[in-house]
Write a structure and sequence with these properties.
By secondary structure, the protein is mainly α. The chain has helices at about 5-70, 70-75, 80-95, 100-125, 130-165, 175-180. The chain has a domain at about 40-170. It has 6 helices and no strands.
Length: about 190
């Protein structure tokens, strides 16, 4: 049975329309996946920005406490920090990497230790006492607070480094290979 020209035209049109429909679907799926990746990346970077801002505020409170010896509750707005830290922790669980989550957990532990030591020092130092032992305990606690502050600052710096490492944008290898001959320092004189 021979193929009529009309049938051949209809078959070619059907194959062409099916192919173009499949191409549109594949393009749509790939674009949607790329856009989702970009949205997750944007949310991750926004979460990291909030996290770094919160850590900066807490580091400022630690420095001010060491300089002034004021009550830590006056330096840190506890209710605001608790609300923000809960939201940041939830967003970090959803969008953050495991490395940043782990370092953030260490930063939370360091801040909790600092807050407990500062509160204990404030209680020891707040009572008027002629007892030399109470003053020596307060002095020991102050030295402990200094070391905990240094540790907390180091952990905060490590958190910032982990975020910078994750957010580091590099040129893909293929583009880098083509750019290399055009660099000024690559030209021999």
């Amino acid at each position: 049975m021979a193929l009529e020209p009309v049938e051949a035209t209809l078959i070619a049109a059907s194959v062409g329309s099916a192919t173009s429909t499949a191409a549109v679907l594949v393009t749509h799926l790939l674009t949607r996946a790329r856009d989702r990746g970009h949205k997750v990346w944007d949310r991750r970077m926004d979460t990291y920005k909030l996290l770094l801002r919160s850590r900066r505020d807490l580091a400022f409170a630690r420095r001010e406490f060491l300089n002034t010896g004021k009550n830590p509750a006056e330096l840190v707005k506890a209710d605001r920090e608790l609300k923000e830290s809960g939201l940041i922790a939830a967003e970090l669980e959803m969008f953050g990497s495991t490395a940043v989550n782990a370092v953030n957990m260490a930063a939370n532990i360091a801040f909790t230790q600092w807050a407990a030591a500062a509160s204990e020092w404030h209680k020891l130092n707040g009572r008027p006492s002629a007892d030399a032992e109470a003053h020596s305990k307060a002095d020991e606690k102050w030295e402990q607070i200094k070391s905990i502050t240094e540790t907390a600052d180091l952990v905060d710096n490590r958190l910032a480094e982990a975020i910078k490492t994750e957010a580091d944008f590099k040129v893909p290898f293929k583009l880098e290979r083509w750019r290399r001959p055009f660099r000024r320092d690559a030209i021999k004189r």
